[in-house]
Amino acid sequence: MLEKRIKIKNETGLNARPASLLVKEATKYKAESFIIKDGNEYNCKSIMNIMSMLARQGEEILLKVEGSDEEKAFKGLTDLIENLSEE
Predict the structure, then answer these.
(1) CB 66 within 8 A of CB 32
(2) Can you give 38-77 as a three-state secondary structure string?
(3) How far apart are alpha carbons 56 and 13 in whole angstroms?
(4) Which domains does the chain have, with CATH numbers?
(5) Where is the HPr domain positioned along the sequence (predicted)?
(6) Please, which residues bridge with residue 16 across strands?
(7) Which residues, 6 or more positions from 78, have their beta carbon under 8 angstroms from its beta carbon?
(8) Would you say residue 85 has pLDDT above 70?
């Protein structure tokens, strides 16, 4: 299992567009991926889970990835979250 604490930099947090990008990236992989925020676990492959998390700019989340392709999934998800921006 790989995990990393990540601070949300995107000014609108993980709202609809960033959440959909996150889910799209997570579903590319067999590995299970979750975000832990405020003691709750959210499945990265569920748009409803990610949007209900209400992650805002400046908040810290914990990304956890586990599975056969966890290294690829971890890199893809970490890069996406760390580099999100509203365009």
Answers:
(1) yes
(2) CCEEEECCCHHHHHHCCCCCCCEEEEEEECCCHHHHHHHH
(3) 4
(4) 2-82 (3.30.1340.10)
(5) 1-87
(6) none
(7) 4, 6, 63
(8) no
Tell me the average pLDDT of the chain: 94
Q: What is the rounded (10 degree) CA torsion for 54, 16, 80, 1?
A: 50
Alpha carbon distance 85, 45 (integer Å) = 20
Residues 6+ apart with CB under 8 A from 23: 44, 45, 46, 47, 50
Please state, in angstroms and as integers, the Cα–Cα distance from residue 35 to each residue in 22, 31, 62, 87, following that order.
Answer: 11, 13, 5, 24
Instruction: Compute the distance between CA of residue 44 and CA of residue 21 in angstroms, rounded to an integer.
Output: 10
Instruction: Encode pLDDT of 33-74 as tens digits.
Output: 999 999 999 999 999 999 999 999 999 999 999 999 999 999
**pLDDT at residue 87 is higher than 60:** no
